């Protein structure tokens, strides 16, 4: 495929006008100036006049099947929501539910320019199947938690599923599927499970994906249990972060925690919309950036966001920090854009993603440069973070494959997906009503 005469967003977020970008297979083969390259047999052309090509987005913390819970249990305190709504609903999910709910999440992601997600959930085999079928990429992890007194790790099915998931799928489909080891959090695990997960991380060399200090109560109660040690300290001391990975949320981390995560090479994934919706707080992203941490962006699940809108996530990342600290200079548009693109790709262990560059994966968003929201533009990074929206997306490409174009999803049968997800929703609500 060839994008002809198109404006492209450069690595420094400047714009090069009237460029030609050739895609061969999954990769960007060439980027050239105004003279149109010689056509090749079988080339598909896209007239890029009046359009902008930018890197796609990488969602560094999500729970994709939770599209089924969108809007289920609103205006509730976090623990009430988890215990009274989310837990009972999730207890009735099956693999087919998660397959179609993930396809729904991939469609929504594509429409929002997201081509890769770092996911933590269960029924992961079905999630992987949906991701492959859709053409997306994913860092998938089986969420692990345990509350009982005695842990027999050899008989603990979720742990064995995590091992098998890594063995069967890590690096598969030309690297589209990566497998991380998911510990739900310090507060949902016994010391024995944390030690077992640490052992699995060291045995596999995988990266961790963990919720860290999402709420003040989680953070402070950990310190009470662990002699003043925070969740980040407790997990680091156990070896959870020895291979790096993603620490999701980090709303209440302390300065010493930021130093630990930096030393361990851990990416912090901030999820501003979910955190504000659940009144968990606003993360100290400026502190993290000043420390030199890699900061990526996440939507969290659609149950707590309630969308997978990455333009909104970028904007809220900047605005929430400015409100919390009373400083309109905090988090520049370039920092927010980097977090949404290149930082997320690096967090997922995808070094050849997140930039429009020869030899990099063709993960791309084509925007309508003539959209009212993008005009006039004095600075494109500013326009993209504070003015653009998903309505401006004309096309999304993942590994050189068009997965969204002008409201259509070439790789997903939306009629079937909508039918099956509605059937799952109705069945589960019926089961819950019977039990109640």
Q: Helicity level, as a percent range?
A: 25-40%
CATH topology group of the domain at 2-55 and 354-405: Urease, subunit C, domain 1
Basic shape? globular
- From the N-terminal CA to the C-terminal CA, the straight-line distance is 55 Å
**CATH C-level name of the domain at 2-55 and 354-405:** Mainly Beta
For this structure, what is the CATH homologous superfamily of the domain at 2-55 and 354-405? Answer: Urease, subunit C, domain 1
Total E-strand runs: 17
Q: List low-pLDDT spans.
A: none
**Radius of gyration based on Cα positions:** 21 Å
Short description:
With 436 residues, the protein is of the alpha/beta class. It has 15 helices and 17 strands.
Word description of this protein:
With 436 residues, this protein is of the alpha/beta class. The chain has a domain at 2-55 and 354-405: Urease, subunit C, domain 1. The chain is built from 15 helices and 17 strands. The chain has helices at 78-90, 95-111, 124-134, 157-169, 191-204, 216-225, 231-237, 255-264, 272-277, 285-291, 310-325, 333-340, 342-347, 380-386, 414-435, and strands at residues 2-9, 15-24, 27-32, 45-47, 51-55, 57-62, 114-121, 137-144, 177-179, 181-185, 208-212, 245-249, 266-270, 295-297, 364-368, 393-398, 401-405. Strands 6, 7, 8, 9, 10, 11, 12, 13 and 14 form a nine-stranded parallel sheet that branches. Helix 2 (95-111) packs parallel to helix 3. The mean pLDDT is 96.
């Amino acid at each position: 495929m060839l994008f002809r005469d198109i404006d492209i967003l450069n690595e420094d977020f400047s714009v090069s006008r009237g460029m030609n970008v050739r895609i061969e297979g999954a990769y960007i083969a060439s980027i050239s100036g105004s003279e149109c390259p010689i056509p090749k047999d079988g080339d598909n052309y896209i007239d890029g006049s009046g359009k902008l090509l930018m890197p796609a987005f990488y969602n560094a913390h999500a729970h994709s099947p939770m599209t089924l819970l969108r809007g289920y249990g609103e205006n509730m305190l976090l623990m009430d929501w988890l215990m009274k709504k989310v837990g009972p609903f999730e207890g009735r999910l099956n693999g087919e539910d998660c397959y179609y709910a993930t396809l729904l999440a991939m469609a929504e992601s594509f429409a929002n320019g997201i081509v890769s997600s770092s996911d933590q959930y269960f029924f992961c085999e079905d999630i992987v199947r949906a991701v492959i079928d859709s053409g997306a990429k994913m860092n998938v992890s089986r969420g692990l938690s345990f509350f009982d007194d005695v842990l027999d790790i050899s008989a603990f099915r979720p742990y064995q599923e995590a091992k098998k998931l890594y063995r069967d799928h890590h690096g598969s489909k030309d690297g589209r599927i990566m497998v991380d080891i998911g510990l739900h959090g310090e507060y949902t695990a016994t010391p024995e499970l944390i030690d077992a997960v640490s052992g699995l991380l060291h045995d596999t060399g995988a990266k961790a994906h963990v919720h860290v200090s999402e709420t003040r109560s989680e953070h402070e109660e950990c310190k009470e249990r662990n002699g003043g040690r925070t969740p980040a300290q407790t997990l680091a001391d156990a070896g959870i972060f020895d291979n790096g990975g993603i620490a999701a949320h980090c709303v209440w981390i302390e300065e010493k925690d930021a130093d630990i995560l930096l030393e361990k090479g851990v990416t912090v994934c901030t999820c501003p919309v979910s955190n504000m919706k659940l009144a968990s707080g606003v993360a100290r992203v400026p502190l993290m950036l000043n420390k030199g941490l890699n900061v990526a962006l996440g939507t969290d699940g659609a149950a707590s966001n309630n969308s997978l809108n990455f333009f909104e996530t970028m904007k809220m990342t900047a605005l929430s920090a400015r409100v919390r600290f009373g400083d309109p200079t905090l988090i520049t548009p370039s920092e927010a854009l980097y977090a949404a693109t290149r930082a997320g790709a690096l967090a997922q262990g995808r070094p050849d993603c997140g930039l429009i560059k020869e030899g990099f994966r063709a993960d791309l968003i084509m925007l309508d440069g003539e959209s009212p929201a993008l005009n006039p533009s004095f600075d494109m990074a500013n326009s993209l973070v504070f003015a653009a929206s998903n309505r401006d997306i004309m096309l999304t490409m993942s590994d050189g494959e068009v997965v969204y174009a002008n409201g259509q999803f070439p790789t997903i049968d939306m009629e079937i997906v909508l039918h099956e997800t509605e059937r799952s929703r109705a069945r589960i609500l019926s089961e819950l009503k019977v039990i109640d």
